[in-house]
Design goal:
Elements: H1 5-10, H2 14-20, E1 33-38, H3 42-48, E2 58-64, H4 68-77, E3 85-86, E4 102-105, H5 112-121, E5 125-128, H6 136-149, E6 153-155, H7 163-174, E7 180-188, H8 200-203, H9 207-210, H10 212-223, E8 229-235, E9 249-255, E10 261-267, E11 272-279, E12 282-286, E13 297-301, E14 304-308, H11 317-331, H12 339-358, E15 362-363
Parallel strand pairs: 1-2, 1-4, 2-3, 4-5, 5-6, 7-10
Antiparallel strand pairs: 7-11, 8-9, 8-15, 9-10, 11-12, 12-13, 13-14
Helix pairs in contact: 2-7, 5-6, 6-12
Length: 366
Amino acid sequence: MEHSRRALIGGIGAGMALAGSGAPRAFAQTRKIGYAVVGLGSYATRQIMPNFAGCDSARLVALVSGTPAKLEQYGAQYNIPGTHRYSYADFDRIRDNPDIDVVYIVLPNSMHAEYSIRAAQAGKHVMCEKPMAVSVAECQAMIAASKKAGKKLMIGYRSRFEQYNRLAIDLARSGHVGPTRLITAEHGFPAQPNQWRLDRPLSGGGSLMDIGIYSLNAARYLTGEEPVEVSAVESTDRNDPRFKTVEDRINFMLRFPSGIIANCVSSYSSSHNGYRVIGTRGYIDMEPATPYQGQSMTIRKDGVAAPRVLPAAPKTQFAGQLDHLAECILTNSTPIVAGEEGLADMRVIEAIYRSAAEHRSVRIKA
């Protein structure tokens, strides 16, 4: 895959509502927290940046890109002055801009650690897209850099700010359909060729590092536990040009301390997006579970199944996520998806890859 570095980096329960809804809180807000978005690819420009309009506590104030045309286009669209538009060559000058409180890293996975650490060293809080990094060691370095700088580090787990997922967490953990015994979580889509996600030096891995992390993270947030053992099997057609350096499908089973088992799928060659929490009295079904919009929930309890429909949310999951970090800064509180959450996922991801490679179950160490 021949891409230049420059092109690539250019390219419910009330308790849960308080924990991560992004809803306005009772504090005296004096200003909106300013974000600089690093990397102007499709996710940043189509999902993140438009949703600042729905934020109560966050605003877009700066852009970073290796493509001058993108800086010009989006700078004009969002009224970002030339003084607040940066290239990767002068990225570290953000330290001199007091309007920038947070740097949002939306780059290929292998660049997350470098730019997160540099942002912290520049005295900025950090929002970093998932996966947090490409190794446990990089995650630990990112956490250490933010702590040393006295700044907050949050990972972009947007589903934690989506109302149906928040409700599913509340219902699952409270035993609404009885104690949880089994979770199934499946995420996949047919990957298009010639993209950085299929280049291991940039992505750090295949479907597991991209879409499969939704299955993994869901299993963790629905149980509220950390898995202690994993067993994984990889299935990849190496004759497919998309999968020369990364995996296609990984099926993995997680065992949790309480005895809950999670059967999970990660795939770059099949379409699915859902999870089911199965208890002793029924199940909570989410399909689709984690798309950008359009989540759907069905609950079967004591032999009766019915859809659960919630009123329209006051803001999108993206705006909720952006506001959550801003409000944590204003109130000096800890994000519900701080750097330690990304580190926990990466520990399991490394164990999944090891299990698949060694054809054995792997214990997960905290």
